[in-house]
Every structure is written in structure tokens, then in C-alpha cells.
Prior knowledge:
The structure holds 2 protein chains of 2 kinds.
Chain A: H1 7-16, H2 23-39, H3 41-44, H4 75-80, E1 85-86, E2 89-90
Antiparallel strand pairs in A: 1-2
Chain B: H1 8-17, H2 22-40, E1 43-46, H3 48-63, E2 75-79, H4 106-113, E3 117-122, H5 156-163, E4 169-174, H6 180-186, E5 189-192, E6 212-217, H7 220-230, H8 248-251, E7 260-264, H9 265-269, H10 275-290, E8 294-298, H11 306-321, H12 339-350, H13 353-366, H14 372-395, E9 398-402, H15 418-422, H16 429-434, E10 438-445, E11 451-457, H17 463-476
Parallel strand pairs in B: 2-3, 2-4, 7-8, 7-9
Antiparallel strand pairs in B: 1-3, 4-6, 5-6, 5-10, 9-11, 10-11
Amino acid sequence: xxxxxxxxxxxxxxxxxxxxxxxxxxxxxxxxxxxxxxxxxxxxxxxxxxxxxxxxxxxxxxxxxxxxxxxxxxxxxxxxxxxxxxxxxxxxxxxxxxxx
Amino acid sequence: xxxxxxxxxxxxxxxxxxxxxxxxxxxxxxxxxxxxxxxxxxxxxxxxxxxxxxxxxxxxxxxxxxxxxxxxxxxxxxxxxxxxxxxxxxxxxxxxxxxxxxxxxxxxxxxxxxxxxxxxxxxxxxxxxxxxxxxxxxxxxxxxxxxxxxxxxxxxxxxxxxxxxxxxxxxxxxxxxxxxxxxxxxxxxxxxxxxxxxxxxxxxxxxxxxxxxxxxxxxxxxxxxxxxxxxxxxxxxxxxxxxxxxxxxxxxxxxxxxxxxxxxxxxxxxxxxxxxxxxxxxxxxxxxxxxxxxxxxxxxxxxxxxxxxxxxxxxxxxxxxxxxxxxxxxxxxxxxxxxxxxxxxxxxxxxxxxxxxxxxxxxxxxxxxxxxxxxxxxxxxxxxxxxxxxxxxxxxxxxxxxxxxxxxxxxxxxxxxxxxxxxxxxxxxxxxxxxxxxxxxxxxxxxxxxxxxxxxxxxxxxxxxxxxxxxxxxxxxx
Lengths: 100, 478
């Protein structure tokens, strides 16, 4: 059985999810996530060592298509929807030199 | 106004026969929208000029002696998580406000190729996360049958559009009940096809192994016709089923004589399922028996774990799918000095509270140290549920249950505690986990005179059995 989720856990998860939470949100989410995870304890407590996991309802293998060029999206139309573009590419702020 | 309540099949037959024009049909429905959608708020986007122009193209085809197709001139409403080329597609989220997709979803292409006329894009819980449409960033949708109540969700706008006579056909998406539950609450038919029966290409993904597109209609036959049009293999969706489609419409009226029907006992005993809803399900079973079906009670024990498994699996997949909304390629960007800060600022401002909650839950369930206890365990439960359903389908052809534990509830009733809202989907979630098809059909009302939906479930690709069962219930409904 997993330990109860803490405020520090929630803060760490928010960082992983690229979300900035206020102190109030941290408190609210800690309580709410704990409640949902507590509800999930019925599942966590089952002995399912002999049961294979299902990731997907269809047991599909790889789906391949012939290796021929087909129609693709128009680059200008795609870039027109981007917040910022330059020289046929998506433009973003500084990446190099950022802390990890 | 009365003409805005005729069926999709009647609209198409009339347009193809030249009895009325697609333009006339479009104008009738646009008038209904103009008259009442200010109150209902089923739509996030309607462009009347574009609707009339599309209808005129259908009329021109008819005038030229061409057949526009089985949905000739039929107005359709599309949930706003289905991509429409050049037409805003928001997922009811600030993060996609103003975005115009560069392509159409496969289902949209197929509807239009069959002669349908797109009326507009409908409201939903943000990114389809919710059961009441109260999580839309652009305000809730009201239930046309009682505007003080929710229409259900997440496809609440599509359900309300069909119930209000804004369109005889709408599409929604169903990840844990998001077609069937609002259909039940608005008194219309809602079908979640088998996972893979309908292409998901162009559906903005919430939980990719659970999501499925399906129709809302006012009749079972219209649902069958819609599935005939939108279903079938699509090379652009690698999970779409290569199995050929049967003619669903042709099977609708074949009755249930000799069909084996199981009443799913666990779903009648679940906490929160209202006695009046249980009573309607039992009456539905009696109606099927009277029509010649063999009715028995069947246990599918693992369904009681469905809700817990779902609220680990769906948020986990959502946290991964929604990572794409980072301010780089489309939608909102909040400027900041570095890319990482820009992504954090964009996502923090762009996502609403329920979406953040599910991203957090999913990120946690997938994180190191918790993966096996939560996500891995939930995937094993998914196997149990599929196994128990398969065992039941050795004894019966279809299963019967409530769709939603209650009739439509009031705004704000279930927003204080997320778990209370999640419990709405307790009867619908298991079919998403197993990937099997399910349909909700109106069958009588609850004590408050609001509609009750009965759910018919079946094994993979057994839609014809669901549809003919639902058609008998439609004819026998009190």
C-alpha cells in the first residue's frame, strides 16, 4: 500500500508537469489527490501478481503502410497557427544556458 | 420550428427526393439555434453563412441530378475536440482559444462526404474532462429539458444540441461515459462504438486507449445510420479496426426474439444508483422479455473496480497527451525569458482546474516509485474487467444496466468534491476499459420527470445487437 501523498510530493509533481501552483492550489490539490488515491486503494490492495497488464483494448501489432510519399500538411498553414515562427520553423525563447 | 425535430433519415430522404431543400432545413435549424441557444449554450461556434453555403452546395448537387449521400442536408453538430479545417477548435480550453486546425478529422470528412451540413462546434468539459460541462472555460451548457440542471458531460453541448432540436445528429467522444451519460441526462440516444470501430484521427486526444467517437441522435435508427457513415477502417488511425462494417441500419428493426439479455447485477447495487433508475432498468428487462428475449441476471464482479482503475489510467494518459500543449506549435503562448519558463507560464494560465488536477494525478501515477502500485495495478484490473465481461458474453449476447446513477442534477451540486463528480461514470467506465461498445437509450423518467437512460452493452463489434435491443426499448419506452 502506497504512502499518503504529501504537499512536497504535489509540488514536485507540479514541477514535472510544467505547472506553477499557488500555495492555496498546493493545499487543495494535496487533499484532493489524496482522496482520489485513497479511493484507488481498493485496486492497489488486490493481489494481481498472476494477472497480465492490459495497456490497450486491442491486441494490435505494428501497423505498417507502404513506404511511399503521401500528402502531408502544408508547412505554411501549420506555421501560421503557431504563436511564433521564423524561417519555416517554430520560434521559441532561449533554451541553451537554462538550468536543467 | 416543428421541422427542426424531424429525424436525420427523414431530412436526408426529403432532400434526396427534392421534397424540400437542404437550405430550408438549415434555415429551420439555424432559427432554432438563434431562438434558444443564448439560454442553452450548446454551441461554442456557429457560422450561419457557412452553414447556408454548405446547404446550398447540397441543393446544387441535387439540382444537377447527383445524390449527395445518405446524410444529404442533415445538420450535424460537432464536439469542439474534433478538428475542423479552418474552423476554431478549442476543446473548451483557453490554451487552444483561436486555434484553427489545418485538417479535418476523419469523421468530419466522412460526414461531409455523406452530404451532412456542419452546424457548429459544441461545448464540452475542458479537454473532455468532466461529467456536467461545468468545466468548460467558456461557461456551462444548460439542459434543454430543465435549464436549471446540467446536460451531463463531457459532450454536454452535443447532447443538448440534439435534445433542443438544433441538429438531429451530433458527434461526441466517450472516454469514460462522455457520450452515454449526457445522452441519458438529455433524453437522447448516445452510442459509444467498439474501440477501433471509428477512426480517432483528428480527435484531440484525452486518453488514447479509451477515447472513442460516436453519435447522439433522437432515434436508434439515426444512430445506426450515423455509425454506418463514420465507422470503418482508416489508415490514418493505426488503432482503427480492419474488420469490415456490417450494415447497422438494416439490423435495427430485427427485434430481440431469442436474444440472450443479462441484467448486470453489480450495477444495480452500486452506491448512489437511484431506486427509480434501477426500477426503469428492471422494466426495460421486462420489455425485452415480452419481445421474446431470454432475460437472466448476470454478475460481472470486476466492474466494481472500474472507477478506481479509470482514475489512474485516464489521467496517466492525459498527462502524457496534454504535454503537447506547451506554447510552441499552436494555441496560447505566455511570453517568458526562457523556453521552460514560457511553457510553465503558458500551461499555468491556459489549463483550468480540473485539467490541472488530472495532469497532476496522472503525472504522480506514472512517477518513479508509484508506477507499479498505481498505474501497473490499474492495468491489471483492466485485464480482470475484460476477462469478466468475456465470461458474461459466453452466457448472454448483451448486458443491461443504468447509464447514469441519477437523472440530471443541478448546477454546482457535484463540483465541491471531485470524487462525487467522478462517481457519475461508475456504470459507463467499464466498457471503455474493456473497449467494448455500449449505447444509452431513453427509457422513462425518474421521480423528477427527467429522463432515465438504460445502457445496453455487448462484446467487441456487436453494435448491431446493441442497436436492435435499443430499438425495441425505444418502441416500448413508457
